[in-house]
Specification:
two-stranded antiparallel sheet, mainly alpha, 5 helices, 111 residues, 2 strands
């Protein structure tokens, strides 16, 4: 494919996504009784740009990660540390049915 064709394709994808972004209702689209499709609103994005955008406290995230690593190294029982991580930590991996035995068969196969 020529460079102009690739450029036109990418431009058309951006235009379609931009149109969806601009016209998508702020309250979302209800899909039956199952779910509501949500998309960031045009007005909210403009407000974020005017206010300097969203900010994240990177230092606190890095400190939490460092503290978790130190706890894991200092803890004699790494299984309880991982159990706490999988069940209580807000940054945990979400498992189907909150079953922390979900990967046991994988670990047995890898062993």
């Amino acid at each position: 494919m020529k460079q102009s064709g690739v450029f036109l394709f990418i431009l058309s994808v951006f235009l379609v996504l931009g149109g969806i972004w601009y016209f998508f209702p702020a309250e979302g689209l209800k899909v039956g009784d199952i779910a509501t499709l949500r998309f960031v609103s045009f007005e909210q994005t403009l407000a974020d740009l005017k206010n300097g955008g969203a900010s994240a406290d990177v230092d606190s995230v890095l400190m939490k990660t460092h503290e978790r690593a130190l706890l894991l190294q200092s803890s004699g029982d790494s299984l309880s540390t991982f159990h706490d991580y999988l069940t209580k930590d807000p940054d945990r991996i979400i498992l189907p049915g909150d079953d922390y035995h979900y990967f046991d068969s994988l670990f047995v196969a890898m062993d």
